[in-house]
Amino acid sequence: MNHFLDIHKTDAADLRAMIDQAGAMKKARLGRPRAAPDDTQPLKDRMVALIFEKPSTRTRVSFDVGVRQMGGQTMVLSGNDMQLGHGETIADTARVLSRYVDMIMIRTFDETVLTEMAEYADVPVINGLTDRTHPCQIMADVLTFEEHRGPIAGKKVVWTGDGNNVCSSFLHAAGQFGFDLTFTGPAQFDPKEEFVGFARRKGSTIVIERDPYKAVEGADLVVADTWVSMHDAQSAKERRHNLLRPYQVNAELMRHAKPDALFMHCLPAHREEEATSEVMDGPNSVVFDEAENRLHAQKAIMRWCLGV
Ligand code: CP
Ligand code: NVA
């Protein structure tokens, strides 16, 4: 069995195989009703726990539907309603859940909750977002890019705004899939050195460029995310907005990228803040393909975790 904790902790060849399998599984069920079972039922008789300590729409629904399409069953648990939220240790929770379920997906705040869960669980644990990373999202994003533009290796991705958890996983993916990434945002929100360093050690060109117009020159993909993440203090909202506003992705900024540059946003979006509706709904936007591909990418991730 394998845990899917982070993109940099997963073998690059395995990541590649997951993307390819996700694409193939997606094609195989084109046009079928959403609840129609896949031809093969690799998760038959398997029970998957989906634990949320933060809100979610995409992660929750895509994991739930994905497990069902592959023949398994799910239970969606709110961290708050569990004893976990009332003092039971993560280790004990992991040991107990391992007696009932075959796999655990958890969305949480602190990274250590995820890693401790993985340490003490006898079943695979999947990272459904932490304050630090969001690997399932970036697997879906790689799949989405390649569906539209072919291999992502060697391409230029530009991350705008806050060097947050989603940006961190993009940097991990740059290293593992062999693309380059330019970060453009205020210095206060630079991505952490450990993520930049990983990508550079793997041979990716990682650039920090304060001028968003210079940054997007030659971009194959421009990415935005919320300026205030779920783990950020709401009290910092105004300050963050003031600092990040120059990095809004709008039609004028997109005109400085390659003419066929894609636009991505993991959603949920705050329209007219980090990106305008003109871009979000424009011809180069693939934001809803990304959302759909969460389903397909995660199905491949779950199969890899269980070795089925
Ligand atoms: N992109 C993403 O993870 O969305 P949710 O917060 O709705 O799960
Ligand atoms: N950076 C965002 C992503 C949401 C899917 C957050 O952590 O809130």
UniProtKB/TrEMBL annotation:
One GO MF term: ornithine carbamoyltransferase activity
Keyword Ligase part of the UniProt annotation: no
Binding site for carbamoyl phosphate: S56, T57, R58, T59, Q83, R107, H134, P135, C136, Q137, C266, L267, R294
UniProt main location, coarse: cytoplasm
Record's keyword terms, sorted: Cytoplasm, Transferase
Ranges for domain Aspartate/ornithine carbamoyltransferase Asp/Orn-binding: 154-304
Gene Ontology terms describing biological process: citrulline biosynthetic process; L-arginine biosynthetic process via ornithine
Pathway(s) this gene product operates in, as recorded in its UniProt entry: Amino-acid biosynthesis; L-arginine biosynthesis; L-arginine from L-ornithine and carbamoyl phosphate: step 1/3
Subcellular location, record wording: Cytoplasm
Function summary: Reversibly catalyzes the transfer of the carbamoyl group from carbamoyl phosphate (CP) to the N(epsilon) atom of ornithine (ORN) to produce L-citrulline.
Family: Belongs to the aspartate/ornithine carbamoyltransferase superfamily. OTCase family.
Protein name according to UniProt: Ornithine carbamoyltransferase
Source species: Ruegeria marina
